[in-house]
Amino acid sequence: MKRLILIPVLFCLFMLNIASMCSSDDNSSSSTDPTSVITIVSQGTWRITSYVDSGTNETSHFTGYNFTFGASSLLTATNGTNTYPGTWSVVTDTTNDDNPSSNLDFNIAFASPVDFADLTDDWDVVSYTATTISLIDVSGGNGGTDTLVFTKN
Q1: Closest-CA residue to 107 (of 137, 140, 127)
Q2: Rounded CA gap, 97 and 10, in Å?
């Protein structure tokens, strides 16, 4: 008789455990809400402290440039002499095609010059703090991995 009672009790405990695991995954709104990244990047100027393009360190192409992520998606890179306009946005990634662990896309677009046009992509947000934003992109064509790190000035 005790064995007959024990089986349904164990089954109920098992089902409750599964339900609690599922509900905790569904409530991860902080990792899918772009608001905090937008707020952070919109404040002050930023510099690129690391840009690795498929294993090649190309950080030096951006030495001396400050990036301003302004209103209306306006992105500006300037070194005091040259100024390059671009666009930016941070959005929820509903497909998670490149990086399933990331729920946010950080979109950057520059038309020119070539070094800045290389930044044009829908980067996956790896991590962010008030002073650092780390991004990654897995290229569809050659399968190379690009990484980009912005640090606040």
Answers
A1: 137
A2: 38
Instruction: Judge whether 82 and 73 are in contact, CB under 8 Å.
Output: no
Torsions phi, psi for 66 (to 5 deg) = -110, 135
Sign of CA dihedral 73, 49, 143, 29: negative
For residue 57 the two structure tokens come to 């360190």
Choose among 152, 153, 150: nearest CA to 125. 150
> Which residue shows structure tokens 């005790």?
2
CA distance 101 to 79: 34
Look at residue 140 in the predicted model and tell me its pLDDT. 66
* Stated pTM of the model: 0.76
Q: Coil, helix or strand for 111?
A: coil
The tokens for 103 are: 């729920």
Residue type, 40: I
**Contacts of 24 by beta carbon, 8 Å cutoff, 6+ apart:** none
